[in-house]
Amino acid sequence: MPVLVTAPDGFRGTITAHGATTAAGRAARAHGWLAVDLPLSDGGEGLLAVCSALGGTLVPARVTGPARTPVRARWWLGAGRAVVESAQASGLVVAGGAAANDPVRATSRGTGELVVAAARTLAGIDPEEAARTPCPVGPPGTIVIGLGGSATTDGGEGLVAAIDEAGGLGDRISLVAAWDTATRFRDAARRFAPQKGASPAQVEELEARLDRLASEYALRAGRDVADLPGSGAAGGMGGALAVAGARLDSGYGLVSSWVRLRRALERADAVVTGEGSLDALSFSGKVVGGVVGDARALGVPCLVVAGRADPDGVELARSGGADVAVLEERCGPERSRTDVAACIEEAVAAWLSSG
To answer: pTM for the full model?
Structure first.
């Protein structure tokens, strides 16, 4: 029986990674394939859902949202390790979208508060006992912070303030910042702030803020964090976390290793991945670019399913050896948003039939 690995990200605003995986898996089984379901995240929304599949517990918290008002969020605790999703506390969705967001005032403080809460909990767990429980996230005392989907371009200033006001995180805590884009620190404003509601004038203001913070962080950390890959992720939270001692790493690389994606691909006859909007940025640290690259390296046929796509994204996917199915073109703009699971199923079924 041929094996299809289903490894999408979520389609923002329409379907989760788990939902997209389930839809693709239905098409596979209907065509006599064995489906291996591996919903993914690159560190943005959906990271906690991936962790939940590993076991552990989702811990509720009340923190400062991007608009500086209280919001409800969660973080993941498992075997003496923790995962924080910045989108939970500082996300654009939490802010009500770009139209409701104040891109200059939006703060990352809530993400820092989640990190502090996780650190306090881990400090009370016996490290020797935690070490006896295998966990793919890292050694005991590790906190992984997923960076993606943020409403903020504050350079992580709010995050750092929350950690400083708590008196730090303690000696036992190790931080890993999981970026979803390799963007450098200062470039975060021009590249992403317009998507968060910033006007051209506000982009310039945010660039000046990031320049100032880069200088302050260099003095504080004893090194220039501005040129680190991923330092601009989540509006500069990557750079702020580097100042706090975090190791910066690819969110896709981390998550794909947790779920053993490469091992699954080595045994697969084909793979399906996807996301809501396919563009050039999909190949700069995102799930789609990662899966397409891994599939090509292993010689595994790949289909990218996208809700919508621009020509650059389609060209990059095809140049990476993947086929592309755009749901807006197949199902129409309305149905591709309101009946997305069925559209994904139909697109995967058509691809399998054509092969």
So the answer is: 0.94
